[in-house]
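Dear support,

I submitted the protein below through the web form. The confirmation email said the job was done, but the results page showed an empty box. After a refresh the structure appeared. I'm attaching both so you can tell me whether what I see now is the final result or a partial one.
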Amino acid sequence: CPIKNLNARHIDDLVRALVLDHARRAHRLDLAALGPTARDHHVRALVEAVEVDADRIVLVLDESAVHDAVDAVREARRADSSRTTSAPKRVGDTLPTCPFQPRVQSIDTPGGPRTKLVLDVQIKRLDGRRVLLAPDGRDLLSTVTPQGEPVPRPHLVRALAQAHRWRERLVRLGHSVEDIARDEGITAARVSHIVPLAYLAPETTRAVLTGTLPESVTLAQLTDRLPATTVNDRSILKADRKQRHWGGGDPFDLFNKPE
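What the results page shows now:
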C-alpha cells in the first residue's frame, strides 16, 4: 500500500503547514510568533483528526482550541514589546508552508464547531521515498523562517560547495579524483558524482543557495540532469569550462570571492 510507505515526517510537516496557513487566513492568527515547542503544542491542540488517502489529505480542526492559541500569541507579543531591546532572531527556527489552499468546510458537531480542510494530492516516489505532491506535480511544501524567508537545504549547499572545491583541485591544482577521495575519506565514484554540480546554471546555483529550489528537486535529480563528465581527464574539464555552464557565467565565483 503506497500510503503505508509515506514518509511520516513529510506528512507531519504538511499537517503543520496546513494548520499554520489556515490559522493565519481564517483567524489572523500568526503562530510563527511562538517558539517551536509552543507552536507545535497549539497545532496539535487544533488538529482533531488526519486522514490520508491516495488522492487527498483531510484534516479536522477543533475551532475551540483557537482561543487558547490567540491568547498565547497575544502574550508572546506582549512580552516582546515589553523588552527594552528587540527580541533576538530565533536561529534555526523554520516553518513549513503550503502554496495551495485546501477546500474548507464548516461542521457542527455535539462537541462544538469543527473545520474540515481537504487538499488534493498525489503520491510519488522521490529518491527512494514516497512523498505527497500536488496533482499537477508541484510541491506541496516549502520551508521558511518565521519572517517568511526561504531556507536553503543544508545537504544541497554542502554538496555544491564540495563540487566547486573539488573542481578547484582538479582544474587549477592538478590533483586527481583519487587524491581527493583519499583526502576526504570517500570513494572516487562519490567525487565523480558530485563534481558535475559545479556546472549547474547560475540560476540553479542561486536557487540552491537561497532556498528557492523546489522541494521536489533532489540531489540525485540535480546530478542526473547534468551532462556526463570525465572528471579524471583534467584537460576535458579545462576545455569545457566555458561550454558546460548552463546559461553562461561561472557559479564557481560564488565560492571563490576575494577576501
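Response: this is the final, complete result; the empty box was a page-load delay. The chain has two domains: 2-144, 154-255.
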